Amino acid sequence: MFEFPFPGVAMGCDYNPEQWSPDVWREDIALMREAGLGFVTLGVFSWALVEPEPGRFDFGWFDEVLGLLHEGGIAVDMATATAAPPPWLTTAHPEILPVDADGRTLWPGSRQSWCPSSPVFREHALRLVAEMARRYGSHPAVRLWHVSNELGCHNGRCWCDVSAAAFREWLAKRYGDVDALNTAWGTTFWSQHYTSFDQVLPPRITPAFKNPTQQLDFARFSSDALLDYHRAERDVLRGICPDVPVTTNFMVSSHQTEQDYFRWAPDQDVVSQDHYLDARLPRPRAEQAFTDDLTRGVAGGKPWLLMESATSAVNWQPVNVAKRPGELLLDSLRHVARGADAVGFFQWRASAAGAEKFHSALVPHAGRDSERFREVVALGSALRAVGEVAGSPVRADVAVLFDWEAMWACDLDSHPSAELRYTDAANRWHRALAGLGVTADVVHPESDLSGYRLVVVPTLYLCSDAAAAGLRAFVEAGGHALVTYFSGIVDPDDRIRLGGYPGAFRDLLGVRVEEFAPLLPGETVTLDDGSRADLWAEHATAPDAEVLARFVDGPRPGDPALTRRAAGAGAAWYVGTRLDEAATAALADRVAREACATRLDVPAPGVELVRRGRYLFVLNPTDEPVAVRTEGVDLLADARPGAASGGSVTVAARSAAVVREEE
Ligand code: GLA
Question: What is the pLDDT of residue 3?
């Protein structure tokens, strides 16, 4: 068990000094001190410079930078430098390059051009890791090892022949014999029956739809292949410097779907996470809150480290939206409110050249004399002021279930509606709860649910027997479960649970769906309680549940759309359509009330309230000031709001308060 590597709530960032001359390094350290930086991540993309030829290492410049950082009191999260192979390696060994599903090679010239299953890549990378570990494992500035970088960001899946062989090996381990694979994959369909594992391929481009379980297993295999690679680097580090904790930065988010981080988390000494707001999403900051709560779920409720975020715009979206004044503070505190004990950024100084030169940084192209750098300095003081929050747990009595395997399976092709996307439902319900002042954990379906009052199950298309049994036991013991359409449809092999949908939850819900009736884009339906909905309808009966609302129109007028079944000491609710925002909020409100879920009193729409330990976070992204009832010390204002204004704190527009409440 390692302690969290950085004290308080530290501010940090990626530092790429190799892009600058040594005189800039000295200025960097001075500015880092001015900003109150606690840590930097060093060396992420340094392989080509640190090992300019196979087996020849040049650590001189690293030594100097580490020395300067240490003198400056800045801790180091040391990368193993293996994220992007140098040109000499890909030139000598083009067989390490990844190949896509269409058989196209992904050439060097950007980054991460390596196949996760390549033994040649691994051999070269592990040699570098060992050198790095021997050189820096006991350096006083180094507090954390950072394996590679965002494993799988660009090479999460590879379809080359080496990967194909590794996939077959993985399948042989999973199934034991090929007949078990045939059963799981349903290969009687379309003449796909295999007589040997040697005949099995990764799901490359095909004339028609690929076998869905083959696709699902390939997603599982691909996540495991990179996890195995992570372990290989981690084991080298452990062997040489066992006292330094090891992490790799996760990419938990709605648009990153290729790693099952619930499987990865047990291998981390501290869970670290990168998050970037995505302006392509309808509500990017609500997605951030969801992702933060999911990261906390992945970390098993323990504090986690925000390794990277952006001080303003990124460079990789169609339009890269800059943060408005105040948003840097609010976005950073949102992570802290939901469990982060450090706030990191990419990167220290905005690059003058290269593909990310238009990405924001702590020091922008304009330099120190800029509003951005002044905001960074102010953020540094704010994070120091809330340092005592570190280690406090976020306690929620509501959970939203989330599962990457369910996502991979749900979002496959040849389904009832390509409009249905897994994370849409999960985000929508989380957002509705947050709007009501209800904090939710986002956890794996097989988690221990006993501490919750309400569990929301959004579109859990694939579900294990254990998860279904867990939900049933939770309800019978007095909990409330709210299950939405297209849940419990298949088992972990993506085989339909027969006898009427939603097979895994049919008895618990008392509902039987005979046929799906998805809606065309733009088509809406009305329920007899006035709710509006879209995307989904179905032909259902409710043999053992109370019908709370029926479809008035659409393909199945008169059929149940919202039901409730009392089960044991609790209740199981089901909604068979996608309610609009208002109806989702109204149903979330109703179910949360019945479940007696804890909620904070939201003073105005858009204001976010989260309690972490004895600290109340009030984030006010609106353009008006708000008053929130609380008694205690606002760590950001260094004042006693309770005493000053009759038990309330006033938070200015686009600002925040973090109140240590009276116990
Ligand atoms: C990721 C990577 C960084 C950088 C940023 C840009 O987080 O880890 O190297 O590319 O994205 O947003």
Answer: 95
Above 70 in pLDDT, residue 534?
yes
Task: For residue 42, report the distance from its CA to the centre of ligand 1, in Å.
Answer: 13
What DSSP string describes 379-439?
HHHHHHHTGGGTTPPP--SEEEE--HHHHHHHT-SSSS-TT--HHHHHHHHHHHHHHTT--
The pLDDT of residue 449 is 98
Report CA-CA distances (Å) from 73 to 20, 41, 70, 266, 351: 21, 14, 5, 31, 24
Full domain range(s) for residue 257:
10-156+217-389
Residue 417 lies in a domain: yes
Distances (CA, A) of 568 to 82, 474, 477: 54, 10, 7
**What six digits make up the tokens of 199?**
């005949």
Pocket mutation for ligand 1, best pick of 308, 312, 356, 358 (most atoms within 8 Å of C-beta): 308
Q: For the chain, percent helix, then strand, then coil, each to nearest 5? A: 35, 20, 45
Which residues are bridge partners to 76 per DSSP? 40, 142
Q: Residue 271's domain is classified under what CATH number? A: 3.20.20.80
We report the CATH number of the domain holding residue 502 as 3.40.50.880
Q: Record the tokens describing residue 617, joined without a space.
A: 């976070």
pLDDT in tens, 152-181: 999 999 999 999 999 999 999 999 999 999
Å from CA of 35 to ligand 1 middle: 21
The secondary structure of 468-521 as a DSSP string is HHHHHHHHHTT-EEEEESS-S-B-TTS-B--SSBSTTTHHHHT-EEEEE-PPPT
pLDDT by residue (tens digit) across 543-589?
999 999 999 999 999 999 999 999 999 999 999 999 999 999 999 99
Which of 389, 406, 425 delimits the end of a domain?
A: 389
Which residues are CB-contacts of 403 (< 8 A; sequence separation ≥ 6)?
A: 262, 444, 445, 460, 462, 467
516 in a domain, yes or no? yes
> Residue 642 above 60 pLDDT?
no
Is residue 647 very low, low, confident or very high in pLDDT (cuts 50, 70, 90)? confident
d(CA 564, CA 587) in angstroms, rounded, equals 12
Are 325 and 455 within one domain? no
CA of 314 to the centre of ligand 1 (A): 9
Pairing of strands 560-567, 546-550: antiparallel
Q: What is the pLDDT of residue 77?
A: 98
Mean pLDDT of 315-334: 97
Which of 549, 546, 557, 545 lies closest to 530, judged by CA?
549
Q: Which residue among the candidates 131, 150, 405, 608 is catalytic per the annotation?
A: 150
Q: Which two tokens stand for residue 510?
A: 């008392």
Annotation says 308 is catalytic: yes
Burial of residue 196 (number of CB atoms within 10 Å: 0-12, 13-18, 19+): exposed
Which residue CA neighbors atom 5 of ligand 1 most closely? 346
